[in-house]
Amino acid sequence: MMRTAQENTSCNNDDSQAIDSAGLALEIKAWGRALGFQDVRIADACADMSAAESGMFQWLDKAYHGEMDYMAKHGVKRARPYELVPGAQRVISVRMNYSPPKAADSWPVINQGEKAFISRYALGRDYHKVLRARMQKLADKVQAAVGAFNYRVFSDSAPVMEVEWAQKAGLGWRGKHTLLLSREAGSYFFLGEIYTDLLLPVDEPIGTKGSFCGSCTKCIDVCPTQAIVAPFEVDARRCISYLTIELKSSIPEPLRPLIGNRIYGCDDCQLVCPWNKFAQVTEEPDFHVRHGLDDVTLVELFRWSTEEFETRLAGSPIRRIGYQQWLRNIAVGLGNAPYAEEIVTALRARLADPSAMVREHVQWALEQQQSKKP
After folding, report:
1. Would 151 be classed as within a structural domain?
2. Catalytic: 156?
3. pLDDT above 80: residue 5
4. Confidence of residue 159 (pLDDT cuts 50, 70, 90)
């Protein structure tokens, strides 16, 4: 029988110690804002996570994680901070806006088939490194104030239930698309966590699943592949973000036409969310648009050599998928684009690509183009 999250014998529920740390908690939040985080909140690492843990296993049982084997590999660690950081008492949860200023409007780009749409979070530098570095600086400030303490920083880089902890800390609530929503900032932000043994006072949640979503189903209705199979439930195998980023093999043919020109990620569920009228552009220079990736043609990107891919995307989260997957994704976009001789020429130039996966998608794209030839 699996033990429950409540069986963490290292939990300390002495409220008097937390009260004594109230001043430190205020300082941590102030330091966090000074380091570029828009909000910093604290959750109880010993909180009951049994419902989240159960939901995770149900999701895995349905095989909704696809080829993301690491989701199953880490199992209960996602809901149990003390299994990652012995003696963990608190989760310091942070958020940082990423919506880049002066980026081309998303819908016009999506609606121009010859253009390449890249999720707006990926137009700048790799957020993993940016957030991790800032959280490390925050931890260093805490250490300078209190001396050595046990902690570990996370930024979408380990088995951590980011949204669940952010919700418990009071940063927002889980929307029906499964992302965290904030009344002040919508959903265009990154999350990060610091697991620590410091007994800090915790913040109150502002809601739970769908607290302020009401009867709205815009995110569910707009999904091009209908990946949001029910409120708060995503079948990753159909999600365009999964298909273009996480999936390392061939994209299933029935889903290719539905991807359109989205070559890295998908923002549709966020674009239609009413709460994003409150989203703020980022003040973080690292998340500003680089290399004109907000408004560029598929053909231009498809012509990049391996060297150009590596050089231009240095420091970008996009580089993580690798050159072959990059070409695979763009080939699908080219197949979905309106017919153009320039596109056919670009595709034919890669018919002999060294990668069998790229060749397969190029051939498919050529067939799609030929079917649309006037």
Report:
1. yes
2. yes
3. no
4. confident
Q: At what angle do helices 341-348 and 323-336 cross, to 10 degrees?
A: 150
Residues 34 and 178 in one domain: yes
Q: Among residues 156, 197, 295, 353, which one is catalytic?
A: 156
SS3 call for 191: strand
Q: What residue type is assigned to position 233 of the chain? A: E
Phi, psi of 126, rounded to the nearest 5 degrees: -60, 115
**Residues, the chain, total?**
374
Distance CA(210)–CA(248), nearest Å, equals 32
Q: Is the pLDDT of residue 10 over 70?
A: no
Q: Are residues 40 and 156 in the same domain?
A: yes
Residue 22: how many CA atoms within 13 Å on its side-chain side?
A: 4
Which tens digit of pLDDT belongs to each residue from 180-208?
999 999 999 999 999 999 999 999 999 89
* Sheet of 151-154, strands arranged across: 39-44, 90-97, 189-196, 151-154
Structure confidence by residue, pLDDT tens digits, 101-113: 999 999 999 999 9
